[in-house]
Amino acid sequence: MERETCRLPEKRRRRRCIILGVVAGLLLIIVVAVVLGVSLRANTDTLKETFIARCKEFKGSDCEKIWGAFEQAYVGRDPCKVPTEAYDPFIAAADFKPACNRLMFWSKTKDVVHDFTEKKRDCFLTVEDTVLGSVLNGLTWCGKEGSTKTFTTDCPGWRDCENNTVRSFWNRVSAAFADAACGDVTAMLNGDIATPFNPNSIFASIEVKRFDSSRVKSLNVVLVTEKSAVTNCTNASLKDLQKELKPGIQYYCKEVTEAHIQECSSNPEIACGACW
Ligand code: APR
């Protein structure tokens, strides 16, 4: 058809060809903008939908307000320049109340601890079982300077830069979780590694330091071991853990096999804490 048009008298032909070219160019720009817009919106929408759906499982939470407070921490910012304090409004909005005798901390025991708390939900709670951590568990997100969008791909990884969007979130949330600790506190540490209390871990560098001796009565370490256990309760790093605790907080440690923990969590008859 274009070839026909282009056989018209010289002046008209050139004008039509120019108009057709401009229209085709505009159409192309519109298609690209729509495709990009849809994919960017899909990112924000998917993360927000997941966040809100998970949040709604916690009765009494104002999930839209919590999302708004969360989003302001990183939207429009360089994803490597999000300080932990940027999430303070999220922590305030989530309003996690102190929980006595039920809080479960962990380090390098992710699978075993979550399998346990899922089955013994009435006994212990990890941060990932609360509104603070469950809404974003396993997800990645970030913002970009000059943009109001949320991105879920091409975000910096955990070790790419210190103040990345995701790492600062977990650091802040872990601090809030430790602040809520009260009464007898439990921590599942890994007895199959040489340093179960690693100074670089979130548990050592943030959580233990925040246990308040006026509220926390004791720390009960459950050292999870397999047959190949390389560590027991006399481990040097656990001595460092005791030194980190504020005076007045009692310390206990028990070696428990992973098989025993699994057996115990599958038995609903066994009371909280009687697994070790
Ligand atoms: N990449 C991504 N995430 C990481 C990385 C990493 N390289 N390192 C740590 N994390 C985050 C993940 O969310 C991971 O599941 O920290 C979590 C646990 O890391 P560990 O080294 O096993 O333990 P620790 O650093 O002590 O963190 C666990 O922090 O989240 C709180 O209350 C929680 O007590 C728990 C402690």
Any chance you could write out the topology, listing elements then pairs?
Blueprint: H1 2-5, H2 10-55, H3 63-71, H4 88-94, E1 99-100, E2 104-107, H5 110-119, H6 131-134, H7 165-179, E3 181-190, H8 202-210, E4 216-225, H9 236-244, E5 250-257, H10 258-265
Parallel strand pairs: 1-3, 2-3, 3-4, 4-5
Helix pairs in contact: 3-4, 5-10, 7-8
The structure holds adenosine-5-diphosphoribose.
Describe the structure.
It is a single chain. The chain has ten helices and five strands. The protein is α/β, with parallel strands linked by helices. Helix 8 (202-210) links the parallel strand 3 (181-190) and strand 4. The chain is 44% helix and 12% strand. Helix 3 runs antiparallel to helix 4 (88-94). The longest helix is centred in the first third of the chain and has 46 residues, at 10-55. It binds adenosine-5-diphosphoribose.
Number of domains: 1
User: Quaternary state, please?
Assistant: single chain
Major beta sheet, specifics? Answer: 5 strands, parallel
- Radius of gyration, rounded? 27 Å
Distance between the termini: 82 Å
Class by alpha and beta content: alpha/beta
Proportion in helices: 40-55%
- Order of helices and strands, N to C? HHHHEEHHHEHEHEH
Low-pLDDT parts are 1-6
> Would you tell me which CATH topology applies?
ADP Ribosyl Cyclase, Chain A, domain 1
Q: What is the number of beta strands? A: 5
Sum up the overall morphology in one term.
Answer: elongated
Tell me what the CATH architecture is: Up-down Bundle
The CATH H-level homologous superfamily: ADP Ribosyl Cyclase, Chain A, domain 1
Average pLDDT: 90
CATH class: Mainly Alpha
Number of DSSP helices?
10
The set of bound ligands, ions and cofactors reads: adenosine-5-diphosphoribose
Name the beta content range.
5-15%
